[in-house]
Each structure stands twice: as structure tokens, then as C-alpha cells.
Amino acid sequence: MIINVVNYTKILKKNTVLENINCTFESGHIYGLCGRNGCGKTMLLRAIAGLILPTAGYVSVDNNVIGKDIEFPESIGLIIENMSLLKEYTAYQNLKLLAKIKKIATDEDIENALSAVGLDHKDKRVVRKFSLGMKQKLNIAQAIMEHPNILLLDEPTNALDEDSVKEVRNLLLELKEQGCLIIIASHNKDDIDTLCDEIIEISNGRIKK
């Protein structure tokens, strides 16, 4: 699988948030997006996910242009800022409800995804009682439960303790070996340096050469 971002520009409310972005992403690799807050990292993830459409240029997935040939990548897992969790439901119930949308993930897939991030599918606590770290683990579990070909992760180790960070990094490296295409936006230099095959630095909506 190949994702091409070609001459991509996005203007929002007269502000250019992405300007003439050109980059290529391939299966079996982990890519890191780095840069200051507001530089355009999350916007680029949104563009690749089909959550925003370009003012100019395009994103294609295996030569299918998002917004023209397809609405969004067919097989994708996402963590992008302000993910919605149902606070009065358990972790398992949250994923079970999400799984009904695409009808891809089985009960076993849900249990395995929770286990992979260190959560117990039998835990009866509702999400409202979760720590920030547990909520982040649940976000990661929802992103991986359908075995997507593409993972777009915004600050995936945010709020995690040291042991959990190691678990998540190992998980992402395993998924890479299985052929997943992973793009991470992170302020955590260790995440970027440890995980990524290629690092793309963004400043003021442009890729730094």
C-alpha cells in the first residue's frame, strides 16, 4: 500500500494550515511527524484520513484519490485529538458499540485489542472512572481492533506511564512487521527516534527540507 500526498494545500478561514505538502508513505514502515504545536501535524493526519479535503493538491491511497475516487482510506485506525469515549460504558462496551459500525471486529478481536494495550475486557469499571492513561490505552485499542492497514496516531503515548509506553512501542513495532503503514505525530522525541523509519519535520504548515 502506498499513500501519496501531492502538492497538498489547505486553507481554513483565510489561514494556510498546510502548504504544498509532498510526501509518500509505504506499508511496513513507521513515519514520524514532528514540529511545534499548531505546525500542521494533526492537519496532515486529518488530510490522509479524509477528514478534511484540500484547497489544492490531493491525497491518494494506492492511486485512489480521497474525495474523488474514495471518501477515505478503506482500512484505517485513528487516534486524533479529542477522541470520543462513552463515559458510562466499560472499555469492552465502548469497543463493542464501535465494532457494530463496520462489522469487522469480532468479540475475540476486541478482547485481543484490549489485552494488547494492557486492559482487561472483563473490567466492569466505566470509562468515567478511568485514568487518563487508561483512556489513552482504550483509544489505541479502538484504533487497532479491526486490524487496519493504516494507523494514524496523534500523540499515542500521551499520559502513559513508562511501562505502558514500552508496551505500546512494542505493539507498534509488531504491527509494522505485519505490514501495517503507521504514521505518528508526536512531541515525544524518544517515540520518534525509537520507532520511526523516516521523520518528517513540519513548520508553519510546510515540510522542512
Keywords:
single chain, 209 residues, alpha/beta, 6-stranded mixed β-sheet, 4-stranded antiparallel β-sheet, 6 helices, 10 strands, globular
Largest sheet, in brief, is:
6 strands, mixed
Structural class by sheet pairing and helices? alpha/beta
Order of neighbouring strands in the sheet with most strands: 6-7-8-3-9-10
Rounded to the nearest angstrom, the distance between the terminal CA atoms is 25 Å
Helix proportion: 25-40%
Which sequence of SSEs, written as H and E, runs from N to C?
EEEHEEEHHHEHEHEE
Net shape: globular
Number of helices: 6
Whole-angstrom Rg: 17 Å
How many runs of DSSP E, i.e. beta strands?
Answer: 10
Explained architecture:
- The protein has 209 residues and is of the alpha/beta class.
- The chain has six helices and ten strands, in the order βββαβββαααβαβαββ.
- It has helices at 41-49, 91-102, 107-116, 132-144, 162-177, 189-195, and strands at 2-12, 15-26, 30-34, 56-61, 64-65, 76-79, 150-154, 181-185, 198-203, 206-207.
- The protein has a six-stranded mixed β-sheet with strand order 6-7-8-3-9-10, sandwiched between helices. It has a four-stranded antiparallel β-sheet with strand order 2-1-4-5, with helices on one face.
- It is globular, with a radius of gyration of 17 Å.
- The two termini are 25 Å apart.
- The mean pLDDT is 94.
